[in-house]
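Sequence of GRAS family transcription factor (Trifolium medium).
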Amino acid sequence: KREFLRKYFPADVKNKKVIEFLELKQGNLSVAEYSVKFEALCVFSPHYNMVEAEEDKCVKFESGLRPDIKV
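Predicted 3D structure, token representation.
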């Protein structure tokens, strides 16, 4: 999948997806919907796909949740 995206996905579209991921907030989405969108967009941000970045990924996910849901 990554090879396909790398080969056939234009850089400007990829960059927009990275920005969309970095700015992602739960908003009116359910936690499940937010999680699905988070994982779909995370693919475009290489840092968050490394094993070493698992904690960063968790922090990013939690920071996007609505304040009333955060622990």
